[in-house]
């Protein structure tokens, strides 16, 4: 399938992006757009469920396959299709519309608790429903496969939506603080480069090795850390040589100049207001019983 087979995800994501862009360009009302994205999610899940009918496909990608042919067919015939990931993608579009239209405000603790319970229940359900599949002891009944293929992505997307809403509302707690950790900022700039080069690194590493390798848990973890460090170093080079200059040039060419002028005007206006307040304070008779600090605190603060 090639060294860059993992780029299928970018292709699938771009196809879903084009569909979402078409819905947005129709300029429908917010509620109509939400219904449209929900309908697209259900259509994608229905197609995945239909693929399970009278086939050797499994509703999820398993960790153990008895046949490499079954694994390859499942990977290329189901998992790599945009429809398999459509529910999660369009649920993200729905959450973007919800957060834009209904500005998140402080919600009650009961509502927060309900969202946490629903979200974590969906998360754990999606994880543990794969237990038998990953052991290779899954059910072969068709109704089980069809039901799981339809609901799996919807349940997982519900968990992501609940977590997104809680974090946007400021109710994410320790999870929100961890996701907003400043150490993730440089990694976020390098993650695309790491994604691009990690599979080619595995190919090169496997082909230059002349001896057999015992595939123990320790060796798997060691290879994973080695791949991450090498991919991180190569991604840094790619970022400074290609991504950063290209991003800067595209920003200069595509960002309207009016945005820069508006930013400058707002900055000048803020400083002018601040100078006016200071001059007004200086011309006002000073109350000996009031300190300068107290007078300064009465001035309107310029943000």
UniProtKB/TrEMBL annotation:
<feature type="transmembrane region" description="Helical">
    <location>
        <begin position="215"/>
        <end position="242"/>
    </location>
</feature>
<feature type="transmembrane region" description="Helical">
    <location>
        <begin position="79"/>
        <end position="98"/>
    </location>
</feature>
<dbReference type="InterPro" id="IPR002656">
    <property type="entry name" value="Acyl_transf_3_dom"/>
</dbReference>
<dbReference type="GO" id="GO:0016747">
    <property type="term" value="F:acyltransferase activity, transferring groups other than amino-acyl groups"/>
</dbReference>
<keyword id="KW-0812">Transmembrane</keyword>
<feature type="transmembrane region" description="Helical">
    <location>
        <begin position="110"/>
        <end position="131"/>
    </location>
</feature>
<feature type="transmembrane region" description="Helical">
    <location>
        <begin position="143"/>
        <end position="166"/>
    </location>
</feature>
<feature type="transmembrane region" description="Helical">
    <location>
        <begin position="178"/>
        <end position="203"/>
    </location>
</feature>
<keyword id="KW-0472">Membrane</keyword>
<keyword id="KW-1133">Transmembrane helix</keyword>
<protein>
    <recommendedName>
        <fullName>Acyltransferase 3 domain-containing protein</fullName>
    </recommendedName>
</protein>
<feature type="transmembrane region" description="Helical">
    <location>
        <begin position="6"/>
        <end position="24"/>
    </location>
</feature>
<feature type="domain" description="Acyltransferase 3">
    <location>
        <begin position="3"/>
        <end position="238"/>
    </location>
</feature>
<dbReference type="Pfam" id="PF01757">
    <property type="entry name" value="Acyl_transf_3"/>
</dbReference>
<dbReference type="InterPro" id="IPR052728">
    <property type="entry name" value="O2_lipid_transport_reg"/>
</dbReference>
<feature type="transmembrane region" description="Helical">
    <location>
        <begin position="31"/>
        <end position="50"/>
    </location>
</feature>
